[in-house]
Design goal:
Low-confidence stretches: 1-11
Helix content: 40-55%
Distance between the termini: 29 Å
Structural class: mainly alpha
Strand content: under 5%
Length: about 70
């Protein structure tokens, strides 16, 4: 492993790039892409998205839509 290189279980996607994850997606790949970028498990990001949807649905939907456009 090179110096400064992160360990990644999914070698097909570079963790330094913020992008959608089409391989592990449920809806559009936003949560999976963010989880991969942050180096955390996808379930935690999806759980945060669901909690955000319950607490502030309009803000969560707008944030998800913007993230989809940015990550595309």
């Amino acid at each position: 492993m090179r110096r400064g290189q992160r360990y990644s279980s999914n070698s097909s996607m570079d963790s330094s790039n913020l992008r959608l994850d089409h391989k592990n997606r449920k809806i559009a790949g936003v949560c999976a892409g963010l989880a991969h970028y942050w180096g955390t498990q996808t379930v935690f990001v999806r759980l945060a998205a669901v909690i955000g949807l319950l607490l502030a649905p309009h803000a969560a939907l707008i944030g998800y839509g913007l993230a989809y456009l940015i990550l595309e």
